[in-house]
Write a structure and sequence with these properties.
Layout: H1 4-11, H2 13-21, H3 23-30, H4 35-62, H5 66-93, H6 98-103, H7 108-123, H8 126-150, H9 158-165, H10 167-185, H11 189-214
Length: about 220
Amino acid sequence: MTPFSEDIWRQTAGLRARIFELPFNQELAEGSLSEERFRFYMIQDALYLEQFARALAVAAAKAPDPDARQQFAGSAQGVLVVERELHDSFFRKFGVAPEEAAAAEPTPTCYGYTNFLLAVAHLASYEELVAALLPCFWIYWDVGTDIAKRSNAGNPYQAWIDTYSCPDFGQSVKAVVAIADAAAAAVPQDRRDAMAAAFTRSAQFEWMFWDSAYRLERWPVEA
């Protein structure tokens, strides 16, 4: 049987191509993305990663083998430490006050994505959770390495590009891909189909997240 990762990567090829084409990512590569849009994105990303770390911690608790537990626990810690440092550095660079970041609320897209991940974490199988978490690793690596090849000299967002195209992050991605393949190989076809659905939904949310940042998304009605 073809590895799960090969099947789902092929099945989502069209969606992933549209992620590359998003104005946010095109302008990020050029260094022409407005500071307002990038600031908006970083604030929402910080909110997203808080909940993503929770989902990773659940994956670590559910993992059936020590290597997977270590990988997900380490990823949860990395989100809280390494990526928080990245956000804090950009907050300082682009003038986001700690009070502004602390008072921010998730957009509809951020709220939808994080609640989807947490619902899968607590209500679905371990295998589905692994598949739902995988796009945040793999698609970011895919986008980061692509942008790194095209980034202009002096790009103000180079630190972001370096983070998601660095070899260490690539190794983490490969580890989670391997975990997903092992999980899929151990379950019947209906569970593998559920994994594919979870991966696809998260990949759709990845598209929506970058698009919502470019649009400076707000809730359509105020409380």
